[in-house]
Amino acid sequence: MADRHPSLRAYLAGALVARTGDDMAGPALLLAALARTGSATGASSLLAAVTVSAAVGGPVLGALLDRAARPGRLLAGALLLYAAGLAVILGGLGRVPFAVTLLVAVVAGLLGPALSGGWTAQLPRVVPGERLPRANALDAMTFGVAGLAGPALAGGVAEASGASTAVVVAAVLIAAAAPAAWRLPAPAGPVATPAESVATARPAPMTGLVASGVRAVLGSPPLARATLTSVLSCAAQGLMIACLPLLGERALGGAGFGAALLSGAALSALAANAILARHPRAVAPDTVLWAAPLLQAAALALAATGRPVALVVAVMAVGVAEGPQLTALFAVRHREAPDRLRSQVFTTGASLKITGFAMGAAAAGPLAGWSLPGALLVAAGTAALATPAFFAVRTADRPARPARPVPRA
After folding, report:
1. Which long-range contacts (CB under 8 A, 24 or more apart) does 97-105 make?
2. In this predicted structure, what is the pLDDT of residue 80?
3. Pick from 80, 89, 182, 365: CA 20 to 30 A from residue 14's CA?
4. pLDDT in the model for residue 378
């Protein structure tokens, strides 16, 4: 059986292709909507519709994956539908009422968590338990590479062949990952459905399954504190990223340099995770979870000075914090998530992170209008809150339960 399972290399290749397409899709949609409609407000509304609906779709998608006998095939279907949704959005731009296009974007966005938490939740079925820490670091690195390559591809293709072509390429990349998802291994044992009716042996309704995933995250102190710290960190990231164009304009001479700063953060995150991949047990994941926000907070406070050199150093330091924090978050989820709710834990956590990021980005506009350094200091304070929040949840920790063996491929 093991020889029929996809290798880690195939898993990572599929994840990288899909996530690059996803990171390319956002900027490409933004550019295409702006070109087709001429409205900056409409373009940002379209991007928001795709992003925000992912926060709703995550728990439901996770529940479906957990109750599926072959979750990889469901994942492949979600990727194909997401790619098709992008194509429908592009086809409707400027041709049908914009409200209809927004509705399609909302529906397509529900499938977005398939590329993040839904995919990562399958990793323990691909690699043996002793290889999981290194594989987890490599999986987190695919987010860093995609974060670098996706926006760059979107801009390059849009300049060379038009924004519509960029959307098509993003959709093709996402669809191209479907074969790798299709071949992901099935669960080792029978699929367990929570709250089954003893009398009828019928599965619990979907609402019960979704609620069980949320309870699994909030009811486990290790998962709850990992999720809380990641949400606060993502809110700080949303604040910072929304401020980057203004920072680039005021400190570096052009708003476009803000995008370059974001690429620098992604590059430093990738480098930090590369080191972790070589030494996956050097630092305990829980330690990274509370220490990384402190570095993030210090870096954001440094960025508030507005000095060019300090700004570059600060953004690179934010990346050094973000990369290992993502790896640590995945490690805790893999360690603590019940097997029957694994996908729900990952997709629910991803949805909460998306919500935190969106709230931070939404708050950045008014705050930056009031004071750009003030907005960055609020971001620093938000990140700093993650550390006491981690230890506040830890005080309610229950006795550790025996370690569960990780399913082998």
Report:
1. 98/37, 98/42, 101/46, 102/45, 102/46, 102/49, 105/29, 105/46, 105/49, 105/50, 105/53
2. 95
3. 89
4. 94
CA dihedral for 33, 37, 40, 45, sign (positive or negative): negative
- State the Cα–Cα distance between residues 154 and 250, nearest whole angstrom: 25
Compute the mean pLDDT over every residue in the chain, rounded to the nearest whole number: 81
The amino acid that residue 130 corresponds to is: E
Exposure b/e, 273-294, CB count within 10 A at least 16 = b: beebbeebeeeebbebbbbbbe
pTM higher than 0.85: no
Residues of the chain with pLDDT under 70: 1-6, 40-41, 44, 188-213, 254-260, 394-409
- Please name which of 36, 104, 49 lies closest in space to residue 358, comparing C-alpha atoms: 49
Smallest CA-to-CA distance from 314 within 236, 407, 223 is with: 236
